[in-house]
Design a protein that fits this description.
Radius of gyration: 26 Å
Strand order of the largest sheet: 1-2-3-4-5
Strand content: 5-15%
Helix content: 55-70%
């Protein structure tokens, strides 16, 4: 199974586990806890569980930069605390399945926010999936059978507000991922910040006797562990290889699970329209998980850049690089139109044969193709080795883009492709590229001579090995 498919499975499992939140919330409500107190129990329990795991597994996961704390304030306070309070309030005013469905107005908010902030494509597939999801929401809320007048308007408002809060997790979570944080680190600080917001507002300290009851203990483990720690880690891990819009729609399996649990365990009604609504939502998930063949498929992204497959559609932009004598000085000549076309085709062939190659580097802020960077197979010391190569338009030199792209490729090689060592083979007089290799953690391993255009060109071989 491909890494992107595995990421989709992570998100689907996360959504399914989230679907059980209402069951444990009802347990906490039965012992006398309010909505905000249930939120406090959830996030404090989650922070404690995950913190203990990190303490014994890898203490380095606690390390974050002070300048990045706003990302976790966003995922914790603006998202988790807010949407949980709205969600639990909606459950009390309506029912579990209605609240869960309204929570999943989130994909629409995520898709719009991501298109604006991260410039993600709003594809036809996303549109179709969102339409099915929205139609499913209408059927599940009961409007089709009870009419608008019998619907709790405040409950509906809280439900939609929970969707907005939930959408913010994907947005702030993406900012944290772009800064290189592990999914476990992001989840822990999300729970910690959420606890800092929820505990003072909840008045939970006045319920100490209730908190030590058996039902409260089971409810806390369920709502904070099984339905919080596990799915948040899985969902954040899934975001590493899935764009925000697709991830948010995939997770809409949650309301289907919630509705089923509501019927099976809480005695909620399941009419024809609600069942149809659930099927429409599942249909949206299936559509979202159908992978389209895309010759310009995105491979990875960094803080400022996106790396995607190149195609003949990029001919004009790549000519700005490959036909520039200053850029191509290490090759001793600028390319002709035919050589540019052959260069593109070689990489297209590499995608099919190796699963990787040189990729087009896109500047997020403008959508402009500013260079190329990726992984190719080269010969050294009698063996085939994977090499990171990079070329950028002259106008974008000395801005750190080459290093940023190369670091992204190194991480991709180790984390996604499972490589143990990655190389860069650079002409000995190409000092800027040598500096990039060194700053990418590489060390000189040897030298070789390449024969190109009738000339002997000395090259230095650099590499970095994956840390154990």
């Amino acid at each position: 199974m491909s890494k992107s498919r595995i990421s989709a499975v992570y998100i689907l499992i996360a959504g399914s586990l989230w679907g059980g939140i209402g069951i444990f919330f009802n347990m906490l409500s039965m012992v006398g806890l309010s909505q905000m107190q249930a939120v406090a129990v959830r996030v404090v329990t989650a922070a404690l569980i995950l913190g203990i795991i990190m303490l014994f597994k890898d203490r380095s996961l606690f390390k974050v930069k002070a300048k990045d704390l706003w990302c976790f304030a966003g995922t914790g306070l603006l998202s988790l605390t807010f949407f949980n309070w709205c969600y639990f309030t909606c459950i009390e005013r309506t029912d579990l399945s209605t609240a869960a469905i309204l929570l999943y107005t989130a994909p629409a908010f995520v898709a719009v926010m991501s298109a604006i902030i991260f410039k993600e494509k709003f594809t036809g597939k996303k549109s179709a999936a969102l339409l099915l999801t929205f139609a499913g929401c209408i059927f599940v809320t009961g409007i089709m059978t009870s009419g608008v007048s019998n619907i709790d308007a405040a409950g509906i408002i809280f439900g939609v507000a929970s969707g907005i809060g939930y959408a913010l997790y994907s947005i702030f979570g993406r900012f944290a991922i772009n800064r290189g944080y592990d999914s476990v680190t992001i989840s822990f600080y999300t729970f910690l910040f959420a606890a800092l917001g929820a505990v003072p507002l909840s008045g939970i300290f006045g319920k100490t006797e209730v908190l030590f009851s058996f039902d409260a203990f089971i409810g806390a483990l369920g709502i904070g562990g099984l339905c919080c720690v596990v799915p948040f880690v899985l969902y954040t891990k899934g975001l590493e290889r899935t764009d925000n819009g697709r991830a948010s729609v995939l997770a809409t399996v949650e309301p289907a699970v919630a509705a089923a649990l509501g019927v099976a365990m809480l005695g909620e009604s399941m009419g024809v329209y609600k069942a149809l609504g659930i099927l429409l939502i599942i249909g949206g998930v299936i559509i979202m998980n159908i992978r389209e063949k895309d010759e310009n498929e995105e491979i990875l992204e960094t803080g400022r850049l996106r790396l995607r497959k190149m195609s003949m559609k990029d001919f004009d932009e790549l000519c700005k690089i490959l036909k520039d004598e200053d850029v191509m000085y290490a090759y001793e000549h600028a390319f002709s139109d035919q050589e540019v076309k052959e260069w593109i085709q070689r990489n297209v062939d590499r995608y099919a044969k190796d699963g990787f190659g040189l990729w087009a580097v896109i500047l997020k802020d403008t959508g402009e193709l500013i260079g190329q960077c990726g992984i190719t197979i080269q010969d050294w010391d009698g063996k085939k080795v994977p090499e990171i190569g990079y070329l950028f338009q002259k106008a974008f030199w000395h801005k750190g883009y080459a290093l940023e792209a190369a670091e992204g490729c190194r991480k991709y090689a180790f984390d996604i492709l499972g490589m143990d060592e990655i190389f860069s083979i650079i002409r000995e007089n190409n000092k800027p590229s040598i500096n990039v290799a060194l700053r990418n953690g590489m060390k000189k391993r040897g030298e070789l001579i390449k024969h190109y255009y009738g000339m002997d060109m000395p090259h230095w071989v650099f590499s970095v090995r994956k840390e154990a």
